[in-house]
């Protein structure tokens, strides 16, 4: 009972997912791979000794009757199109973030899925599958710290390259917090504000780095997220939930403790791929298992839409310097909490 | 060569300082104590087996030729008057915070001291004398984390009583951060904003708790301070300095590490008096030593003024919900950095 | 290319491995299960909806031509017999610890495997597959702490039941350290000593608990292992490597950090199954992958023999109170370091 | 009411105590200093601007009627003689460790003090005055971890010079543990064993380093102390108390936590003088206060004797490789627990 998967897009992340399905995860096999560069698709397949059909057109792959489920890992601007096509074909689809290039695009996917009458879409937000965030959510749910009042968060990268622009602090970096914090609190954002501290000299000339994003939720929780993508010292994700009776903090990754050269130290990761490496496995295994059980439960098209709306407000707040509302459509019953 | 000290005000903190000078510190003796209730002054003196003159008038104490230096620990509204009187008498004076009831009052003391032509005033801000803050400042000064860009701080009390009002989060609680963070960064504030998260149900009805205060400094450092005075779990002071190349964090107080009942734990203090108990000793010893060396170096009247101006802006920001400027007079050369 | 596995013994651990191979791991399928109680085998299989042949005799299962590799999870005293039979049949075999009931039994397996001319046996020591021990070994290998001189270790269980006897502190508990520490240091033991501290009142009457085992290795490293199986507070595995230039310590399991009720705390596990849950997956996946690559690299029959010889010396030392030699045959070239 | 103190021996530690009494502590003044090199005594006094009589003979200083209490900080072999002389003169005496060069010498002081009929001697063991050990003892006393069963300790120095010999690991280094662990447990040693791991190449040729000392107490507590005086990485004192229901560990010294260069680190001290700097102040202040209250309560001559007897057994165990008994005279009622 292997789930037969077709992968659209054989770039870096596409190859990773092909490898993952073939050599790490349980219960799925890659039966087709497409890429606008068919040779790229072919080499991805042969490199792993797989047998899979090669397409140069994602729509043809979706139409292949052998393909039972679709992974969309193509160029960002094509995500919406292929996701909509998969929905139209009635095939479950795992779409890497971003779900679409705009909130409106996400909304079109939401609407299409609702018309289809059942959940067919999982967005590639992996943090809810991270052991640490899971433990943090459980601690909140069990009332370990009482009702949450504030979140103090940080998203730090050692450095970014010249192509990284000020708005990408929202769309590429903060987007993960925008998703996972909604999930953590089971709440929605109502406003956003962005503050620019003195910029580090380690950022390139056109980038304002760090930034502090302030979010407010429907229930009044206040969130501050420091986004600092040239922090030099490592890749470091922090999340602290201040509740009415205590504080819970995202676990630091386990590490050998060293006493050495007058320091008592543990290691901080430097490569983001190491930080959530297990979560990537778990999210995709969950997609496979949930498709087989015919009940998708991971990050939904609605979650993709919600993150997109919040990101838009943050982008506006970057420009205006003011508090900007996050104006989201009411949650359809189709997407229960 | 004992420094002969007169103490104005024999309440709780006055008694503490009398005890401190008599049984802990080096090189000073209490020769006079005044209180509007002379009996209170007398019992404070006899309880410790001291010999000291008793006054019911602080001005008479200041005038006593035997008194070489003055501690002002009287009712807050009298601080300005006695400090000005000590300056007029040319006697060094250690004045508990607040230096005066308004920024204007602080300014009058600044002006009087400048007219006197030498530093005579130390304000009772003790945090710069705390080992932890000292170590943090040293780490910054040595460039351990590069140029500071952001500070993330928290000031949490387990609980407060009914008399604690929303403005006291600024004037009684945040005031310590307003002083110590200026000293830590060697910088001045230019704006303040206050955010009110959802309030804890553990605060009494009229108190908005917690609050988040956002400060901006002249050099562009952005500071967030969570003030949460009914956090339930303990008295907890946090300060994290995010610099261009790393992050330095105020030490947690040393504590026995326990493995017990499925928890690996250290203790968090619950009484604020324990947290800075050594700093109180050190600040007063520094006053004694500096007076003898004829060179006051601790928190100055100018520092008292600066904290007061910043507090006023925060109070205004509590009301307005907006970003409020911190408008301070230019620093006179009399008070070098 | 699924590896077809037969499982001998459908008790608790047998069921676990069947579940693991069927729903977690990659590239294997369970094709046969045997148990002296055939009904037990059958229910294990049907509970997971598997299709597998049922045997009431392990030898018949081994002889089944469809079975490509064997898992021995039967009653301890039968391990040697089935492992020898698998070797005789030329089929790779993963045998749960203990490999045999005596060092002599282990030696018989070693000899049989050497006669077979290739590695066919992996013993179920999972700690070398734990992320933490892997990181610790890597730190040593990279010279992070210089040449190891001492190891300070602890193996603590919250409590054990009445059937746990003083010798089981060696054969059931310490046996894991006896394996993993040899692997960590790439060294062999030469002597053992056991010290009995004052016993806890939380142990039953006939159990001496805790115990301290002192080991010496060929290169002169000294190891102390505290075995304390009624420590009350949790399941806690500690390992500290003191080298010539620093100290490396096994990571604490990642855990949410809580500030609550005057404590700054992380959780300590209480169930041993949670501590090495991932390592169980990884060791069996490694067996599957290594069998397919025709190159077993995990804990060998020789490792099983070495642990057994060391355990015997510890048992003797429990009785004698003296330092007892660990007398092991020379390592055959067949088993390279 | 200043206590008038005479100091015998103006070497490094003598000068430190003179400075301490004059500029840090409360309620004492140095009125006389002796040294066999009177010029050394004189320069120690004038360097601090003190007025004190200078002697070249400790006995003359003891005889000076102005001297109310004596500090013995002279050459180790003279400690016994001067301490006995102070007892004979009925003057309280604080004697730096070692109290005498042998257990017999300590015993002579014990006998002399008992004949004098009141406690006159405090030995310079400062660890019981350390905040960390105080907190650890309190945790034990409050039953936080249940009855102690084992202690795991370490005493590590970054390095020692050529003059440090293998026996000094006991007499200069372990001696602090021998005192403080008796005090911590309120118990006595009954046996000692010494194990020599592989020696570090960072020790000079004639020094065996590290060493592991195993101690057994009357109540059956087992103690292991790693003594490692060329550990390279810092000065590090560890003490872990394993009790029936939990484990308590000596606090790490408070330190700024840094995130920097892929490490999350706190500092480890490198100079032993920094580690117990406060404890030196506190022990001597306690002596001053206790002398004034006419009730010495610090480490007694009996404690000095007990540490000396235990050290002798450890030295014997270094030679014999065997478990050696610690044979102490019964505790006289004169020295209550």
Automatic annotation (TrEMBL), chains A, B, C, D:
<dbReference type="GO" id="GO:0019310">
    <property type="term" value="P:inositol catabolic process"/>
</dbReference>
<feature type="domain" description="Gfo/Idh/MocA-like oxidoreductase N-terminal">
    <location>
        <begin position="3"/>
        <end position="125"/>
    </location>
</feature>
<dbReference type="InterPro" id="IPR023794">
    <property type="entry name" value="MI/DCI_dehydrogenase"/>
</dbReference>
<comment type="subunit">
    <text>Homotetramer.</text>
</comment>
<comment type="similarity">
    <text>Belongs to the Gfo/Idh/MocA family.</text>
</comment>
<dbReference type="InterPro" id="IPR050424">
    <property type="entry name" value="Gfo-Idh-MocA_inositol_DH"/>
</dbReference>
<dbReference type="GO" id="GO:0050112">
    <property type="term" value="F:inositol 2-dehydrogenase (NAD+) activity"/>
</dbReference>
<dbReference type="Pfam" id="PF02894">
    <property type="entry name" value="GFO_IDH_MocA_C"/>
</dbReference>
<keyword id="KW-0520">NAD</keyword>
<dbReference type="InterPro" id="IPR000683">
    <property type="entry name" value="Gfo/Idh/MocA-like_OxRdtase_N"/>
</dbReference>
<dbReference type="Pfam" id="PF01408">
    <property type="entry name" value="GFO_IDH_MocA"/>
</dbReference>
<dbReference type="GO" id="GO:0000166">
    <property type="term" value="F:nucleotide binding"/>
</dbReference>
<dbReference type="InterPro" id="IPR004104">
    <property type="entry name" value="Gfo/Idh/MocA-like_OxRdtase_C"/>
</dbReference>
<dbReference type="InterPro" id="IPR036291">
    <property type="entry name" value="NAD(P)-bd_dom_sf"/>
</dbReference>
<protein>
    <recommendedName>
        <fullName>Inositol 2-dehydrogenase</fullName>
        <ecNumber>1.1.1.18</ecNumber>
    </recommendedName>
</protein>
<feature type="domain" description="Gfo/Idh/MocA-like oxidoreductase C-terminal">
    <location>
        <begin position="137"/>
        <end position="327"/>
    </location>
</feature>
<keyword id="KW-0560">Oxidoreductase</keyword>
<comment type="function">
    <text>Involved in the oxidation of myo-inositol (MI) to 2-keto-myo-inositol (2KMI or 2-inosose).</text>
</comment>
């Amino acid at each position: 009972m292997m789930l037969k998967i077709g992968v659209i897009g054989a770039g870096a992340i596409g190859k990773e997912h092909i490898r993952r399905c073939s050599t790490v995860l349980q219960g799925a096999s890659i039966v087709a791979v497409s890429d606008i560069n068919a040779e790229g698709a072919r080499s991805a397949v042969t490199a792993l000794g797989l047998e899979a059909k090669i397409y140069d057109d994602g729509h043809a792959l979706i139409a292949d009757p052998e393909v039972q489920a679709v992974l969309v890992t193509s160029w960002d601007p094509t995500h919406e199109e292929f996701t909509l096509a998969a929905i139209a074909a009635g095939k479950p689809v795992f779409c890497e973030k971003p779900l679409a290039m705009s909130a409106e695009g996400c909304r079109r996917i939401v609407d299409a899925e609702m018309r289809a009458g059942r959940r067919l879409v999982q967005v590639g937000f992996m943090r809810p599958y991270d052991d640490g965030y899971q433990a943090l959510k459980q601690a909140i749910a069990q009332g370990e710290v009482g009702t949450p009042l504030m979140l103090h968060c940080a998203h730090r990268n050692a450095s970014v390259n010249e192509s990284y622009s000020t708005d990408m602090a929202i769309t590429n970096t903060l987007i993960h917090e925008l998703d996972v914090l909604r999930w953590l609190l089971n709440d929605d954002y109502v406003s956003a504000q962005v503050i620019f501290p003195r910029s580090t000299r380690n950022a390139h000339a056109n980038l304002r780095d760090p930034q502090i994003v302030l979010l407010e939720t429907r229930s009044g929780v206040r969130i501050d997220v420091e986004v600092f993508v040239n922090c030099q010292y490592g890749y470091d994700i922090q999340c602290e939930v201040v509740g009415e009776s205590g504080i819970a903090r995202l676990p630091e990754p386990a590490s050998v403790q060293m006493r050495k050269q007058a320091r008592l130290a543990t290691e901080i990761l430097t490569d983001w791929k190491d930080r959530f490496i297990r979560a990537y496995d778990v999210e995709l295994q969950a997609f496979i298992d949930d498709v087989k059980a015919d009940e998708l439960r991971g990050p939904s098209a609605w979650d993709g839409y919600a993150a997109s709306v919040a990101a838009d407000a943050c982008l506006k707040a970057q420009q205006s310097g003011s508090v900007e509302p996050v104006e989201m459509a009411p949650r359809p019953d189709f997407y229960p909490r």
